[in-house]
Every structure is written in C-alpha cells, then in structure tokens.
Amino acid sequence: MHMPFQLRRAGACALTGGWLLLLTNLAAPLSVKAQDASWTNLVAEGEFHEKEGDTPAALKSYQEADRLSPDNADILCRLAKQYCDSIRLAKTKAEKKDLAQKALDCGLRAVKAAPQSPKAHCCLAVCYAKNFPYSDNQTKVDYSRQIKAEAEKAIEIDPKFDLAYHMLGRWNFEVSNMNFFVKSMVKIAYGGLPKASKKQAIDNFKQAVELMPNRIINHLQLARLYHVTDQETMVAPELQQCAALTPIDMDDKDGQDLAKKILAGAKWPEDF
Fold first, then answer.
1. What span, in angstroms and rounded, lies between the C-alpha atoms of 108 and 121?
2. How many other C-beta atoms are found inside a 10 Å radius of the C-beta of residue 182?
3. Three-state DSSP class for residue 270
4. Over the chain (272 residues), what is each successive 10-residue block's mean pLDDT?
5. pLDDT above 90 coverage of the chain, percent
6. Contact by Cβ (8 Å): 130, 3
7. What is the pLDDT of residue 181?
8. For residues 256 and 246, what is the distance between their CA atoms, to the nearest angstrom?
9. What global pTM score does this model have?
10. What pLDDT does residue 195 have?
11. 51: number of CA atoms within 13 Å, CB side?
C-alpha cells in the first residue's frame, strides 16, 4: 500500500407533498424500490470500474451511491479508497492534498456511521497516513497517534482483520525508523510518541500474511522489514510470493510491480 508517513522527514431522498393518501401509499414503496435499484446499480458499476482500474469512473459511481445513501460505511470506505487512488493521478500538490482531505473526511464519516466496523477504523487509519505529505509536523504527530489508535481499534473489534495489522506494522516501522534528531525534536516539542520497534513491525506483518496470504502488499512489507533488519535470506521468498500471486487491487498491482523490479536487481525505494 503506497501510504508514506515518514516522520523522519519532518526534518478512501425523502418524498414530500400534498398527494392523495392512495397515491402516497402506492408511490412511496415504488420510489424506495427504484432508489434501492439505482443505488445497487451504482455500487455494481463502481466495483466493475474499480476492478478494471478505472479510478475516475469508480469514484464517480461511488460518489453517486454516497449521495443516495450518505450514512453507508461500506460505500464511504470504498469512496475513501478511490480518493486515495486518485492521488497518484493528480498533477499538482494542491490537488493531491485536496483528494487526501476528501478521503479523510470519508474515513471520519465511515467511523461515525459504523463505530463497530473494523473496516471503517482501518480505512480511517489509511486516510490519516495519506495526509502526511501535506501536513505540518504537529499534525503528523497527531495523525500518527490516530493511525495507531484506529488500527488497534480495528483489531480489538476483529482480531482477524489483516489490513489492521498491516497498518500497525507500517506505524511501527515508520516511527521506529525516525532518526535521533527527529525523535528528539518530537519529544521536546510534542511530548513524543508511543514506543515502536521493527521487531514489532515484523510480527505485525507476519500476522497480516497469516490472516491474508493472498494479499501482495502484506508480503511486500514483510520483505522490506526483513531487508532493513539485515535478514536478507528471508527477503526473496516473500518477493517471490508477491510475483506469483494475483493482485487484489491497485495497491497489490503496484506492489507486485515493485517486487518484480527488486527481484530483477533494482534497489529498494526509500518510500513506498
């Protein structure tokens, strides 16, 4: 999942009117059914476009579905993801920042609509991460705390939700990877962050792989942690898994492309 949050760089219709009673009783059910059918079609369209990799079309379909059902947490999570995917298509930093903020707004709405949904909490964690490149240092620290809290809440609700462990692993890696100067600055200026470690990140990604072995990004992040902790013999098997699996989504596709490049001799990128 391409969601850099490097603190070390700090240095997703109601009808009214004066109708006759008979017409009201007949029209209301028909209208609800028509609206339900329209909403279902929009969701199906969004899913189709998403599978085809057509982010703008998927975004439009989910926006319309959200308009018809504004408190549907599942649609809000889908919409947040399309806003996040749209960031890579945007040409300016201002556009990217706006899309990241819209994704975060959807994530916050999703949690409000379904506070016991692990998917909503994990979605919100991702959206906080997506806003890192466009936030000041204090906001990054605040968002980092929120990422950890939302991932842990998702795990509390559903201990078998792999993406929550994935996000917690990314949090552990990024926070533990801050250099001494940045750690000191954060501690002095903002009171610091909870403890994090690469060992814990490895455990998080191992758990994510165990729960969802077909998700490429889980294997890719585990490979990266093995690489940065000098466990090189463990890297290639995970990258080979990335190359062999069928991508689930755009994040998986990007992860597979990167894994193949590294297997072919390319260096690990600093951020991904």
1. 9
2. 17
3. coil
4. 40 32 34 63 93 93 94 96 94 97 98 97 96 90 93 97 96 86 70 87 98 97 97 97 94 95 94 73
5. 71
6. yes
7. 66
8. 9
9. 0.82
10. 86
11. 6
Residue length, the chain?
272
CATH superfamily label, 39-115: Tetratricopeptide repeat domain (1.25.40.10)
| C-alpha to C-alpha distances, 204 to 93, 164, 167, 170, 189, nearest whole angstrom | 32, 9, 8, 9, 29
Torsion of CA 119, 124, 127, 132, to 10 degrees: -140
By three-state DSSP, how is residue 101 classified?
A: helix
Quote the tokens at residue 142: 């605040």
Sketch the domain layout of the chain as residue ranges. 39-115, 135-207, 213-272
For residue 156 the two structure tokens come to 């509390």
Residues 45-65 pLDDT 10s: 999 999 888 999 999 999 999
Nearest-5° angle of CA 214, CA 236, CA 151? 45
């240092």: which residue's tokens? 137
Q: Are 237 and 253 in contact (CB under 8 A)?
A: no
